[in-house]
Amino acid sequence: MAKKENGAITYDASDVHVLEGLEAVRRRPGMYVGGTDLRALHHLVYEVIDNSIDEALAGACDEIHVTIHRDQSITVKDNGRGIPTAPHPEKKVSTLQLVMTTLHAGAKFGEGGYKVSGGLHGVGVSAVNALSEWMEVVVDDPRDGKRYFQRYERGIPQAPVEAVGKADGSGTTTTFLFDNTIFKEGTYRFETLAQRIREMAFVTRGVTMHLVDERPEDFPHQMTFYFEGGIQAFVRYLNRDREALHPVVHIEREVDGVGVEVAFQYTDAFSESVYSFANTIHTVDGGAHLTGLRAALTRSINDYGRKSNMLKEKDSNFSGDDVREGLTAIVSIKHPDPQFESQTKVKLMNPEVKGAVESVTNEVLSEFMERDSSSARKIVDKCLTSSRARDAARKARDMVIRKSVLESMTLPGKLADCSERDPNKTELFIVEGDSAGGSAKQGRDRHFQAILPLRGKILNTERAGLNRILKNKEIEALISAMGTAIGNQFSLENLRYNRIVIMTDADVDGAHIRTLLLTFFYRYMLPMIETGHLFIAQPPLYLITAGKQSHYVYTEDEKDRVVKTLGDKKVSLQRYKGLGEMNPEQLWETTMDPTKRTLMQVTVEDAASADRTFSMLMGDSVPPRRRFIQSHAREVRNLDV
Question: Is 509 assigned a catalytic role?
Fold first, then answer.
């Protein structure tokens, strides 16, 4: 412990601590699973599933079961080879115990157990064990035909590995309950796990993956995933609500021991949907493989455009942005020694992968465009349209930037700004219409709360190019007020408010305006969502009055409960269809006062699922949207339709 001598803090050998065993994981969980929030909680499950996927990559497993139990524990079961249980030749302890309790212990450092794998550091499952209240592992070991068992509590074995009977086939079954002293948000989301497992099934062709949720009272929720088409099927799945311009282009090659697989297709969309995987791990921040794919697409399409004379001599080459508009693509590599940026494996760092992906994509795409000139011309036409729209958008964007606070200190006339100049202490409320804007301006705290009223419904940015978007006066006002610019000039460093709060009426029109705004932020200001700056206000639905008692309630179910508790008292119900129906004091008390309000933070837990949902709800294709509305009609009882 640091000591003071003559007023100075000393530092000596006694201040240096050595964390033994798995203690380092419990002290610094962020280094191993990315934190202690809901995303990190789900990451625990992914680490265990990754071990089973590695068995599938080795050709030893074709079925994986994942179960969420009612007590929030998780079971992952596979029919692989089973973790070895015999004593380790060096450590003289069961190999199973070694793998489960020792950092950097695994079969993925040498060349014997796995040719390729997602687990590389020998950290994943032992880190999960350290962060679990308890874990139990059952191994059906085909090596000697016995079943083995061991239990751990916070990473500590409770007894030696023991044989408990005959093996039932082969494989490993891992059950664990997260430690609620570390993870405060303790509820797994079925949809989040389903999306991740779906991705794994797409990129691990021929493996059947089951997900069962035992928590619903009426019946278990379960889904099974199996995709013989692999990432080609993944691209078709992502594009099922868009109009494709050509068949899916699929590439599968091996270059110097690295397996490269790419599938892509252009659509009529204005956005890019590209996802990258390394040894089945979703590298959400991309890396060398994604860079190689983008470089190859830009080069090949420019080459064909010049050769076919669709790109004239006076025309500039297509930029990367031009080529990526409307692109849906998956790039998946299998590498014997992938280098990830961190234990959470969000970015692939191997420089040689870029060249491998770029060379095979160039070769196959060039052959495809020569062979199928009709599809090739559609792709180049799409890029030409994008390029022209981008030029027009650049001029409009420059005008927006010139009008922004950073260039001329000119803010939208309708903006009621706050007096605080530290962006970390301020918030901007985007409100619907002048009536709500008036109440919000009067009810706010002028020191740190700014109000921007929007007139009517903004443009649907899912169906419009950037040039049209920047001509929309409401969007122009929004961009100027936030100060971030847009597109490739977007910068969070210039954000003028720490919180951007969407505050719309609690009716169908309000929900539609909120959806239009969310579409704009997702498509053109995604980093704002990813860094936690975007929120949705939660205004009350009803004011319930009984005598001198008043209650604000926010859902129909809450209204029913409150009315029931009031018994025989005479109850008066006021339904707030619009924010403008509240006086400024009520709006402050219920929706804007930081000490009382409830804000819903907007997050993107899975980009592929969000991307497809925005395309389906806001795109041009009507049948998928109609099916969605019909299937979810019973869930809208909170809306006064």
Answer: yes
